[in-house]
UniProtKB/TrEMBL annotation:
Residues 11-32 are annotated as: Disordered. GO terms for molecular function: protein phosphatase regulator activity. Keywords: Repeat. This is PP4R1 phosphatase. GO terms for cellular component: cytoplasm. Gene3D superfamilies: Leucine-rich Repeat Variant (1.25.10.10). InterPro entries: ARM-like, ARM-type_fold, PP2A_Regulatory_Subunit_A.
Length: 268
């Protein structure tokens, strides 16, 4: 009976409301909930204790981070206050493997928490991951579209200025990073206006088309062709005309054969 009532509570429709919000009084509540036995939750939360990591298992914080989205889903967004401090502690953990684990799952946590809690509690953590090591940044890059689509339009536009930073990596030979960026930009075309695509995504796409690694260039050709389609469907024809002229000028009339070949591949 206890298990049935718990499952009903977890999957209750009210738990999935996107308009969930908390008053400051509720935020200050101690980490008490009635979904799972409190002792079990307390044991989980204690895993981030530094002394425990040193004496029990150095990997314990990583396992804790790996399980956190599942714990958040089980408790429901109305009990996020129980996990918030632990999440922030893990997000600033000294071990990059812990931060990397959270970076790969932050988009899933955003779905669980809804837009208000995501904007207030996850966006600052997300911004921190964007400036982290490449091993951590790749986590948010691989699911960049999944996370940004959950944000409000105004908040989403703020990240247009930061997309350029993904072209710079700790190791210039890390070409998979740039390939992943090209893949994500294809998905991001649906989230932004024609002007934003032309002003911010176009320069990045042209830079990727001239990459030293062929695998990156191949994905970039697809990116540019999708960009042409997207701008062609826009209400303002100016953007697609300017883009086509730039393609002809930069690649079709390029004095290098590789540039002219790029134009042919994009047309293909």
């Amino acid at each position: 009976q206890s298990m049935d009532s718990t499952l009903h509570y977890i999957h209750n429709d009210s738990d999935l409301s996107t308009n969930s919000s908390f008053s400051p009084e509720e935020e200050r509540k101690s980490k008490v909930q009635d979904v799972v036995p409190q002792a079990l939750l307390d044991q989980y939360l204690s895993m981030t204790d530094p002394s425990r990591a040193q004496t029990v298992d150095t990997e314990i914080a990583k396992h804790c981070a790996y399980s956190l989205p599942g714990v958040a889903l089980t408790l429901g967004r109305q009990n996020w206050h129980c996990l918030k401090d632990t999440y922030e502690t893990l997000a600033s953990d000294m071990q990059w493997k812990v931060r990397r684990t959270l970076a790969f799952s932050i988009h899933e946590l955003a779905v669980i928490l809804g837009d208000q809690l995501t904007a207030g509690d996850l966006v600052p953590v997300f911004n921190g991951f964007l400036k982290d090591l490449d091993e951590v940044r790749i986590g948010v890059l691989k699911h960049l579209h999944d996370f940004l689509k959950l944000l409000h339009v105004d908040k989403r536009r703020e990240y247009l200025y930061q997309l350029q930073e993904f072209l710079v990596t700790d190791n210039s030979r890390n070409w998979r990073f740039r390939a992943e960026l090209a893949e994500q930009l294809i998905l991001l075309l649906d989230l932004y206006s024609a002007r934003d695509i032309y002003d911010y995504l176009r320069p990045i796409a042209f830079s990727l088309c001239a990459d030293k690694v062929s695998s990156v260039r191949w994905i970039s050709y697809k990116l540019v062709s999708e960009m042409v389609k997207k701008l062609y469907m826009a209400s303002t024809p100016t953007f697609v005309v300017d883009l086509m002229n730039e393609l002809v000028e930069k690649f079709c009339r390029c004095h290098k054969w590789s540039g002219r070949q790029t134009f042919v591949f994009i047309c293909q």
